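Q: Could you fold this chain for me?
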Amino acid sequence: MHKIRRREMLKNSLGLSSALLGISWAQSLPDNPTPSGRLIWKGGTVKTADGSAPTTYFDAGRFTPFFDQLQRTVRKDRKEFHYQGKVIHTNPAWVRDNIHEMKGYKFWETDLSTYVDTLITLQQPEGFFYEILTDPGNMHLTFVTEKFRRVDATDNIGWVRLELEADVEYLMVEGAYNIWQATGDMDAMKGRLPALERGLRYCFTHPTRWDAEHGALKRTFTIDTWDFTYGRSDRIRRIDPDMPMGVMHGDNSGLYQACRQLAAMYRAAGEADRAAEWDQKGAELRNRINRLCFNGRYYTHQILLQPVDTGVREEDILSLSNTYDINRGLPTHEMALKILDEYARRREERKATHFAEWFSIDPPYPQFGPYSAGRYINGGIGSFVAGELSKAAFEHGREAYGADILNRLEKMVARDGAIYFLYTPEGKDQGGGPSGWSAAAIQSAMIEGLAGIRDEDVLFRRVTISPRFVAAGINHAEICTRYGPSSAWVAINFDHNAEERTIRVRLAGVSKQARLRILLPAAAHSATIVSPKTLQATMETMEQSSYAVIPLANGTAGGPQGVTIQYV
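A: Sure. Below is the predicted structure, expressed as structure tokens.
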């Protein structure tokens, strides 16, 4: 019954949303059948065969089956719970994983909000949120004190907050921001703001969360953002008075991003003073963390608040959140380049022992909890790290490196028929987490990095599109991204003719404003517009890369736009 209702809801929502968004479809149908939801580009029109809103798809040679496999992987993590007469959809059931995977499933799922909104209703007076939705017999309920767990016997559901986790409140802001961006629901967004602000104030003030001396978010001494403490059983997830504590850069980049996202939502809600307050808090935090944690090449793993002898120096450890730091905007561009170059350097340095440089941490600890060096998060290789690293490289003038990472990932998935969360240093699956987290991170790198589609507002109303297919040796591509809850969409059709030295890009969708940034081949440094002659292009340089930048003031909502450039 549930599957039938979902199909009916999806059909109805697509039809309604297309009308609401003012999408104008051409009436003629193609000569050859086109898969449902795929666009037909014909002359000056763009349409689907049945007039519905298009689906999300990624057609780009060898990356087409790769993207499809990633999408199937994310879909497998979807779960359904019944609570207080309502259906809660998760992807999967830890809110952290759910929000990380939202980078992928927001492009097809219609329900992004029920889990986040339920957690908001259960927010505790201090300001913290639960993070796990599970059954009452789950062992994680035994890892914390009573304050951080809840059992609802009527619905046979348990809720848990692993006390030592420092990332839940800022991830809730990220989730709420993405939900608003994909739905455009201003009233729902406004309704979430008080709880989100309480959560961030909890991070900035509570003595178990905030290190007043350094002005930074703290946690117990864990491996990066993971959930067990050095020198303690991995079944102890609370914060005890004698536990070692530290400032971990990734928590603070997440908090910084949350400040900016909360400010953006307050600004859209018309609360300029609140927006300015959170922008300022974020800027001050960024300055402090960059001074405290950046060691000249990357962010030191943990700034320990008391000495701990582990056998490894913290400043030598390159940890996974460095990639997230870049994509959250914590480092300057120059700092981001140093981090990217450090990963490339360690790839070369470790190539005899590690198949890839996507380290959870490097070097690992001789022993951390039950895990020896190279096992699990103590030195395993994370494909979720690869996705974030690739996206960061695309954005900071290391496009060839970003493409190289995707190329290696594609070959791995083609070989194994799957993407795994963590790999051994030799390249074998060692499990340890939801593969959908990794798949969504890689999808995000493909959509925002390789295809370069970035929503600068909500509902794709204002977009920047930076196709970088030439960095991956791809001459023909067609990408469509559609938000599942609203059916707002944007699509790009890309053709590169190396002999004629031309690139044609066609755009379609609902955007009111668009800015096109076309990456030129490595040897090219300038370009002119072949058509339409009414447009103007300027050149933009990012490190050694050259982009032809063309503003499209009227976007694509009035119809598809096409641009052809010739480069030299």
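A (continued): The first helix runs from residue 2 to 20.
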